[in-house]
Amino acid sequence: MPSRPGQAPPGPQPLPGVGSIVAVGSGKGGVGKTTLAVNLAIALARLGHKVGLLDADVYGPNVPLMLGTNGQPKVLSDQRIEPLEAYGLKVISVGFLNPGDKPLIWRGPMLHSIIRQFLGSVEWGSLDYLIVDLPPGTGDVSLSLIQTVPLTGAFVVSTPSDVSLQDGRKAIEMFRQMKVDIVGMVENMSYFVCPHCQHEIDIFSRGGAEKTAKAFGVAFLGSIQLDPDIRKAGDTGKPAVLEGENSPHAKSLFDFARTVVARVDEIKSSASAGVIQIQ
Amino acid sequence: MPSRPGQAPPGPQPLPGVGSIVAVGSGKGGVGKTTLAVNLAIALARLGHKVGLLDADVYGPNVPLMLGTNGQPKVLSDQRIEPLEAYGLKVISVGFLNPGDKPLIWRGPMLHSIIRQFLGSVEWGSLDYLIVDLPPGTGDVSLSLIQTVPLTGAFVVSTPSDVSLQDGRKAIEMFRQMKVDIVGMVENMSYFVCPHCQHEIDIFSRGGAEKTAKAFGVAFLGSIQLDPDIRKAGDTGKPAVLEGENSPHAKSLFDFARTVVARVDEIKSSASAGVIQIQ
């Protein structure tokens, strides 16, 4: 985002036309953060909202694969970037700019600059929600994001395993330290139903995220079961929520989306006026 | 590692007394990288080797929890750091220095400095293998590590899901670009056997890592099944390999350890003399 003349070093600046900016964090990777970010964004669009999805996971940008979309975003005449469209979402991902298997071997300052560009130079237009898929951990990208735009809030994805919860607690503490409102915590891969014998099996344990949410005084946003069909839907570029709210694979994802909407409304109505300043 | 007087900016410097340095990378988090690093290190120790384990995953240091060990490493009179001991391993983790739920919200340069300190100031003594658990991704820590010590090699952990493989390919490409020998690729969470009906279920798909290894011309190091007991063992600080090679939960992990030993020997015997210089 360009700084304006005569202004002090820029704090977080609102994105004009964007109602709520919701970040999806996790502490630990591989817990289904991107799967939930993608399904949440599409579910919100299906529920009638205008939604953008920013894939800020610069080292592992899986959003293009999960949306089955690829292509080079257009650069407009004024150097602004036009996001791609997929399933009714406006989407931007470093995966569009750097497709294929070549990694971005970048140190922190490069990350900072691309995140600022994605936020400030992309033509998001008018959005009700901009969902931001953060990389796992508590590093450069999260810092840059928080310092660049005022987040409405962030939620934390964890599996119920102790190692995932350990990192999830760190993510909650990070958002707290950075004065970001916490939308809540969601438990992913919560339990598994054997497709052959219908027994429920707690592969990654169960219930830990709800307990952690309670212990940390944050909202619990629901449990999403470990469902091979949700994973397959992501691997094939057709996220599970596309099946509609009545699909057994999508129901908990739509419930989750409605809970996020309610919590974001709550945060916005209780927020004091003005931009949150980072200490 | 302190630079020596009269020396040019230091390239990778060998760690005196350490035979092989093997990094464990993944591209994507949550694929069981730390679980495999911890079990590999203990299996190597059980096979009679002297082993150190460096937890370089500074934002999500899960090694202390998986080893059930904690404590403040002693600082010796010459400012060198004494690693902790657990199950016959010498271990160092940022989790020992920063226990609890407070996150390290650090930008890249801080990471660089802690990694250099962990490698240069820790009193590793004489080791056959130093196993380094990298954070997921292709960022600062991996760069710092590769620039600080000459890695004997690195292997890449992936689940068989397409999103994990996508990031795993990036990790392979990163190591290649950095001229690090690739020990191989291992498939974790490869398939699941229902404990009730014994059906095999490919929750995260199956076989993709072997195919990827073949396509990229790297060794395939084996498949480890998705086993809730391996996860539980990690969550309770008693890694599965402690049950011994005859345990059904540990057998594939010991097989994997032997394959790593063989591949590392192969790399060492074919390596040209002298330190690999990073371009």
The most extensive contact between chains is: A-B, 62 and 62 residues
The fraction of residues in strands of chain A falls at 15-25%
Q: Sketch the major β-sheet of chain A.
A: 8 strands, mixed
Rg of chain A, rounded, reads 18 Å
The chain-level structural class of chain A is alpha/beta
Query: Helical element count of chain A?
Result: 9
Order of helices and strands of chain A: EHEHEEHHEHEHEEEHEHH
Distance between the termini of chain A: 20 Å
Count of distinct strands of chain A: 10
Read across the widest sheet of chain A, the strand sequence of neighbours is 3-4-2-5-1-6-7-10
What is the residue-mean pLDDT of chain A, rounded to a whole number? 89
Assembly status? homodimer
* Poorly predicted regions of chain A: 1-9
> Approximately how much helix is present in the residues of chain A?
25-40%
The shape of chain A is globular
Summarize, please.
The first copy, chain A, has 279 residues and is an alpha/beta fold. In chain A, 35% of the residues lie in helices and 18% in strands. Chain A is globular.
Characteristics of this structure?
homodimer; 279 residues; alpha/beta; 8-stranded mixed sheet
Care to describe what's here?
2 copies of one chain form a homodimer. By secondary structure, chain A is α/β, with parallel strands linked by helices. Chain A has 9 helices and 10 strands. In chain A, helix 1 packs across helix 9 (251-270) and helix 4 (108-120) packs parallel to helix 5. Chain A is globular. Mean pLDDT of chain A is 89; it is low at 1-9. Chains A and B meet through helix 4, helix 5, helix 6 and helix 8 of A and helix 4, helix 5, helix 6 and helix 8 of B.
